[in-house]
Amino acid sequence: MEDKTKYFVLKKKAVPEVLLKVVEAKKLIESGRAESVQEATDSVGISRSSFYKYKDDIFPFHDNAKGKTITMVIQMDDEPGLLSLVLQIVADFHANILTIHQSIPVNGIASLTLSVDVLPDTKNVSYMVESIEQQEGVHYLKILARE
Fold first, then answer.
1. pTM, two decimal places
2. How many angstroms separate the CA atoms of 144 and 133, rounded?
3. Following CA atoms 41, 54, 73, 92 in sequence, which dihedral angle do they give, to the nearest 10 degrees?
């Protein structure tokens, strides 16, 4: 059985400098202050390969995550009831589903893009993501965006 991703919250001083620079480069790109990955990585002093290696694995943590939208992509088996189970987990954590898009399954695997609104009474989002990842038939979960 493959290992599922785990999430940790660390103090800034415990995070390696390269990861902090990846976050800084992402901010430069998102804000338009850097027009390319090359420009952003040059600006913060890391290689493009370091940026691409870690860009999908580090996000700033915001204490005020309530009222935020989280968009995730999930690859899962095309099995009756699995989508319903995933949606039930979201409901159990008191998050509001904003959009759902499921692709036509290819070779028995469906891709699901799910956007959820984190409400004031939403329980721990990390646990929600972990609960979805642990479901039999879920192969992959990646958080695409937090707004």
1. 0.59
2. 15
3. -120
Fold adopted by 68-146: Alpha-Beta Plaits (3.30.70)
- Please say whether the beta carbons of 107 and 23 come within 8 A: no
Per-residue pLDDT of 68-117, as tens digits, reads 888 999 999 999 999 999 999 999 999 999 999 999 999 999 999 999 99
Domain regions of the chain by residue span: 12-54, 68-146
Cα-Cα-Cα-Cα torsion 4, 122, 69, 146, nearest 10 degrees, comes to -50
Q: Which amino acid is at 1?
A: M
Q: For residue 145, how far is the Cα from the chain centroid? A: 6
Phi/psi at 103 (nearest 5 deg)? -75, 165
Measure the CA–CA gap between 67 and 69, rounded to whole angstroms. Answer: 7
